[in-house]
Amino acid sequence: MTHFPKEFLLGASTAAHQVEGNNTNSDCWAMEHMEHTSYVEPSLDAVDHYNRYEEDIKLMAEAGLNAYRFSLEWARIEPEEGVFSKEAVEHYRSVIRCCRKYGVEPVVTLHHFSSPIWLISKGGWEAETTIDDFARYTRYVIEKLGDEINYICTINEANMGLQITAIAERYKRQMMAQMAKAQETAGKDDADGTVQVGINLQKMMEEQKEAAEENKKVFGVEKVANFTSVRSVESDILVMKAHQAAKEVIRELAPQIQVGLTLSLHDMQAVQAGGEPFAEEEWENEFTHYLPYIQNDDFLGVQNYTRSLFGPEGGMPSPEGAELTQMNYEVYPEALEHVIRKVAENFKGTLLVTENGIATDDDSRRVAFIEKALEGVQNCIQDGIPVKGYFHWSLLDNFEWQKGYSMTFGLIAVDRSTQTRIPKKSLTYLGSFR
């Protein structure tokens, strides 16, 4: 085993809505409780990280980890437009200081999928006003906490909307096929497994009409443009502008903070002749076209879980007999090294692996995944690629969005009947690389 340098950030990640519990002012909470919801269950108390964060941070430190990537919840900090919660921001100050207490570097994400209900009622992530709203929220956070933070990810997986749009279009094409066999394939083809977030695409598509009516009652708009909605080209650029606006605020108020965003990236592989143009197009959509908006960032957060395969007709399924995760991703830890190398061809700043992991109930497979993934990271470092950190997804078994609690990504299991933490062998195994 090769150990990472002392200054290397080795840790794990979480997202506020997935772990904190009772995030009642967010769009996700509202959607979980709708009659025509695509969530299989509501988050409720989640894993109560809001109250148990010190226990969780201490477990990380005792295992040998020295960094923790977590998100602030916009809907807690600004529950009403222009109205900020001192209690919420002080809570996050306590989390940051708890990290310092245990020798863990806090890496803060300002937005990880969930948004305030009031933002969605104004048009959400299709509304130009969101750029200024996000900048105002960022300004408040930096004014209050800027001197406590060294690293900020403005937006998690800024490209997620386009990925969801692509698979939604594919699903529509399948559903339009009239042959029984094609319809059966549409029902069973888990298009969800091609996007790196827990969604229930089939139910979303089937209940659009009913959901639109309920949206008007809950949000005041028929089309809810939350962060993980199907996204227009204009909205894709809007997200980048929101990132840039937040970055300007951070550099104005706290220039010592290293700032970037994170992208969800697949290892694009043309495995049959003729697949190369499709792989190149997907990489352009997923990464390259964002370069003008991120080239002056201090770092880029690389998030990878698997690969995408292409042949002469376009995307291909996982190989016959391939091991799949609970999320229907192919188990392919080698993808991380490939993606880091591909990103480094064009992005010359620091790279942080801000998410990488596996949904499985067999922790021995998680250990094997970590071993291979970290071997790839170390190969990249040896070749001079500036990878400065690795954050495993996730610290805790948590709420995987529309998939609920059935997806187990965590280094720590949680008995939700008692909220008891049960560290897995993978936690100490990851820490042993320091």
From TrEMBL:
Keywords: Glycosidase, Hydrolase. The active site is at 355 (nucleophile). One of its GO terms (molecular function) is hydrolase activity. It comes from the Bacteria. PROSITE patterns: GLYCOSYL_HYDROL_F1_1. Belongs to the glycosyl hydrolase 1 family. The keyword Hydrolase applies. This is Glycoside hydrolase family 1 protein. SUPFAM superfamilies: (Trans)glycosidases.
